[in-house]
């Protein structure tokens, strides 16, 4: 039977080869089928991954504000910044409890916003930031107060009307080391328009003027933006205000101490001529362009205050108008003989006009000139035998040529 079994298998050779062939073909099929199954499995996995991504919740925008919410002593020397991740910014508003607002700019991608200026000191700010597709987010912070501060006291007074020679003069309560920063924070503009430039006379004084006298009728605006400007190491300004002044008619008086005469011109025409008496040979009067900076219907003049010992002490000098800080006045004089005026220079450096005790006599030159004058009027002294007054001695910067004046600017 074993032989018969062998014989039977050998009797069907074609079937055997056929099966091998089939097996051979079938042997190739699993590979092909496997390839097909492999592609089908990848597609299924991709679909499952896509479904997984679609089903994952979208990330919410996260907004960050600097200074952080609740900060109590935030720096006021750096800008406010707002950033967002996983989104873009739709709007940002920053407002202070003083009524101020901070403007700012977005980057191109609108993922950040930066204020164009720094926040003010000692101020509470509210920041409202909104990312696209999200609710508004509100945070608050408070800036710290500065340690030391300074202010600038200005001349002339707000709303006043002055003569054409009145500069805008600012005296600071603390020495300024960063003059450029302080001067940049102060602007003086005029209507009708004219170039106005600042000049530093010292670490504490900054004056502004045009090249020539102001035009009659000019309106001048002083804009102080000194708040939080660091004028010195750790010393910050506190002012942020606008002040307006006005220029009245033009009055320029020329005192010729050789002729002992003063000619007053109003808007270019001769208004009056007065005999005067100036400083004697030992007490010569400053020459140059001077501006009336103070006016007193009556005042006390004491020689000791100007370094002249006890030479005089007059309690009721009439119609006195200051020309220099060092003590030069143009004033009425009732104690000298009437014959002195127009003929001799006998004073201790002031320019005197005949006047009456009590300052009530309207017929005398001292009274008349005083009544015709105002702060900021120009008085020019010549032929006095003395050098030109220091431009810083009073409001007398007009004695500097324009080029030298501009050279005194820190900008």
Quick structural gist:
This protein has 411 residues and is α+β, with helices and mostly antiparallel strands. The protein contains five helices and 28 strands.
Structure explained in plain terms:
The chain has 411 residues and is an alpha+beta fold. 18% of the residues lie in helices and 36% in strands. It contains 5 helices and 28 strands. The protein has helices at 2-10, 13-55, 179-184, 365-372, 402-407, and strands at residues 62-66, 81-85, 89-96, 101-102, 104-106, 112-115, 124-131, 137-142, 148-150, 152-155, 161-162, 168-172, 186-191, 197-202, 205-209, 219-225, 230-232, 235-237, 240-247, 251-256, 261-266, 269-275, 288-291, 294-302, 313-322, 329-333, 351-354, 378-382. The protein has a 5-stranded mixed sheet with strand order 22-21-20-28-23, with no helix packed on it. A hairpin with a 2-residue loop joins strand 17 (230-232) and strand 18. Residues 1-41 have low confidence and may be disordered.
Throw out a few tags for this protein:
single chain, 411 residues, alpha+beta, 5-stranded mixed β-sheet, 28 strands
Oligomer: single chain
- Beta-strand proportion: 35-45%
* Percentage of residues in helical conformation: 10-25%
Shape: elongated
The radius of gyration over CA amounts to 44 Å
Intertermini distance? 124 Å
Mean pLDDT metric: 89
In DSSP terms, counting alpha (H) and pi (I) runs of 4 or more, how many helices? 5
Uncertain stretches of 5 or more adjacent residues: 1-41
Count of distinct strands: 28
Content-based structural category: alpha+beta
Strand order of the largest sheet: 22-21-20-28-23
**Sheet with most strands:** 5 strands, mixed
């Amino acid at each position: 039977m074993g032989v018969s079994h062998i014989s039977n298998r050998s009797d069907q050779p074609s079937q055997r080869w056929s099966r091998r062939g089939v097996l051979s073909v079938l042997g190739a099929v699993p590979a092909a089928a496997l390839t097909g199954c492999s592609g089908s499995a990848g597609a299924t996995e991709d679909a499952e991954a896509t479904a997984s991504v679609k089903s994952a919740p979208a990330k919410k925008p996260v907004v960050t504000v600097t200074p952080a919410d609740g900060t109590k002593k935030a720096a006021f020397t750096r800008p406010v910044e707002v950033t967002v991740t996983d989104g873009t910014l739709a709007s940002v508003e920053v407002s202070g409890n003083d009524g101020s607002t901070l403007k700012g700019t977005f980057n191109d991608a609108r993922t950040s916003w930066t204020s164009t200026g720094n926040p003010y000191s000692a101020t509470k700010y509210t920041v409202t930031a909104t990312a696209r597709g999200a609710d508004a987010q509100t945070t608050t912070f408070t800036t710290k107060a500065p340690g030391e501060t300074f202010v600038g006291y200005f001349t002339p007074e707000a709303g006043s009307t002055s003569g054409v020679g009145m500069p805008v003069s600012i005296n600071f309560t603390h020495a300024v080391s960063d003059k450029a920063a302080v001067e940049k924070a102060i602007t003086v503009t005029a209507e009708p328009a004219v170039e106005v430039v600042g000049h530093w006379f010292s670490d504490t004084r900054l004056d502004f003027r045009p090249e020539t006298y102001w035009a009659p009728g000019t309106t001048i605006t002083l804009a102080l933006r000194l708040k939080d400007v660091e004028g010195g190491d750790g010393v910050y300004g506190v002012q942020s205000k606008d002040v307006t002044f006005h220029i009245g008619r033009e009055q320029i008086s020329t005192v010729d101490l050789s002729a002992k005469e003063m000619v007053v011109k109003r808007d270019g025409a001769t208004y009056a001529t007065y005999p005067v008496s100036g400083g004697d040979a030992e007490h010569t009067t400053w020459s140059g362009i001077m501006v009336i900076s103070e006016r007193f219907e009556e005042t006390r003049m004491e020689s000791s205050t100007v370094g002249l010992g006890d030479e005089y002490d007059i309690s009721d000098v009439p119609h006195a108008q200051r020309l220099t800080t060092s003590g030069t006045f143009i004033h009425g004089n009732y104690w000298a003989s009437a014959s002195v005026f127009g003929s001799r220079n006998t004073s201790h450096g002031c320019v005197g006009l005949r006047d009456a005790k009590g300052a009530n006599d309207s017929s005398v030159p001292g009274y008349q000139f005083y009544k015709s004058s105002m702060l900021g009027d120009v008085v020019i002294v010549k032929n006095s035998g003395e050098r030109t007054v220091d431009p810083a001695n009073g409001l007398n910067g007009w004695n500097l040529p324009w080029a030298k004046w501009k050279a005194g600017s820190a900008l």
